Amino acid sequence: MCIIIITNLSAIQTLMLNECASTTDLQLPNLKVITKSIIPELNGKGKGEAGKVGIIGGSVEYTGAPYFAAISALRVGADLVYVITTENAAPIIKSYSPDLIVYPFLNAHSASKLNFILSKMDVVVIGPGLGRDDDIIKLTHEIIQTCQTLKKPLVIDADGLYAVWKNISILKDYPSPGAILTPNHKEATRLIQAVPSKSGAWYDYWGKYVSVLSKGEQDRYHSSIVPFRWTSSDGGSGRRAGGQGDILSGSLATFFNWALKSYICENEQSAQFAQSVAAYAAAKLTRSCNSKAYETYGRSMIASDMLKEIHRAFEDEFE
Q1: Residue 237 labelled as part of a binding site
Q2: Is the pLDDT of residue 204 over 90?
Q3: According to the model, what pLDDT value does residue 243 have?
Q4: What predicted TM-score, i.e. pTM, was given to this entire model?
Q5: 44 a known binding residue?
Q6: CB 125 within 8 A of CB 55
Q7: Does the annotation flag 21 for ligand binding?
Q8: Is residue 17 predicted with pLDDT exceeding 70?
Q9: 305 known member of a binding site
Q10: 50 is in an annotated binding site
C-alpha cells in the first residue's frame, strides 16, 4: 500500500475509499490523514452537533476517573458531556468542573431516567471509576443491554471490562455501530481467559462490530476486519500515570462519534473503519499528551498534567 501526501478533499476521499477496499493493514500516516478529515468544522454548528457523550461511572471511592474521561471528551471537542454516577459521587464530581452535566442516577431506582439520558447520547462510555460492587455490576449489565437495544456506540474501559469479564457473552453480537473495548495488559489477559477456547481469535468472539484496543508500551488494535488492524508505539513515555486510560476513553468517545458521522467507507464496513480511525486518534492523542507532560514534569507527572496538554497535542497531531 502506498503512503501519499494529501493536499485536497477529493484526494482524502480517494484515500479513504482505497483504505476501505484494501486487503493489507492500515498505514499509520494514512490513519493520521483520515483522522484530520473527520474533525468537524466549528463554523455554522449548533450546540450538540459536535457530540453528546455519556460517561457511566464513578463511585464513593473513585470520583477522579469519570471526571478525567468526561473532561477529556469535552476538551477534545464534544459539545456536551454527561456523567451518570452514584448519588454520593455526584456532588464531588460536580465540584471538579462546572462544565460537566452530572446526574446521580446510577442506581436501580432511576432506570427510567437513566434510559432516557442514554437515548440522547451519541456515544456512551462505561467503566471509569465504576467499582465492582455486585449491585453495580448487575446494573452495568442492564445498561449494556439497554445500549444494545438502542444500538448505541459504546466504549468500555476499566471496571466496565470487569463487568464484561463477569458475563463474557453480554456483548455477543453487539449491533452496528458497535463497541470498542480498551483493556490494559492485565484486563486483556482476564478477557482472553474468559473467552471460550474454541472461539478462534479472542477478540472476534463478540462479533464483527466489537473491536479491541489493547493498551500498553505498544498499542494494538484488533478488528474483525484484518486490514483495519494496526499497531503503534509512537509517543508516550515511561511514566504511566493513573487516570491516563480514562483520558483515552473519553477522547475515544468524541473521535468515535466524529468518525461515525463522517461515513468514512460509505459501505457495510463503515462502522468498523470508524472504530479503527477513532481508536488510532485517541491513542495517538493520549500518547502525545503523555510525552508533552513528561517533558515538563518528568517522574512527577500526573494525569491532571496531561489534561493541560490536550489542546497543544491536538493541534500538533491533527491540525
Answers
A1: yes
A2: yes
A3: 96
A4: 0.94
A5: no
A6: yes
A7: no
A8: no
A9: no
A10: no
Q: Is 312 annotated as a binding residue?
A: no
What is the rounded CA–CA span in Å between residue 142 and residue 33?
A: 38
State the cell numbers at 286.
Answer: 493520549
Is 238 known as a binding-site position?
yes
In terms of C-beta density within 10 A (0-12 exposed, 13-18 middle, 19 or more buried), how is residue 301 classed?
A: buried
| Alpha-carbon separation of residue 297 from 140, 284, 290, 293, 302 (angstroms) | 37, 20, 10, 6, 8
Per-position b or e across 236-263, b if 16+ CB within 10 A of its CB = bbebebebbbbbbbbbbbbbbbbbbebe
270 is in an annotated binding site: no
Closest listed residue to residue 313, CA positions, set 296, 300, 164, 147: 296
**Residues 258-265, mean pLDDT to the nearest whole number:** 91
Q: Is 282 annotated as a binding residue?
A: no
Q: Is 244 annotated as a binding residue?
A: yes
Give the list of residues 6+ apart from residue 48 with CB closer than 8 angstroms, or none. Answer: 79, 80
- Residue 180, C-alpha cell as written in the block: 470498542
Under the banding of pLDDT at 50, 70 and 90, the label for residue 26 is confident
Q: What is the DSSP letter of 41?
A: P
Location of C-alpha cell 485517541 = 282
Please indicate if the annotation marks 299 as binding a ligand.
Answer: no
188 marked among binding-site residues:
yes
Q: Is 245 annotated as a binding residue?
A: yes
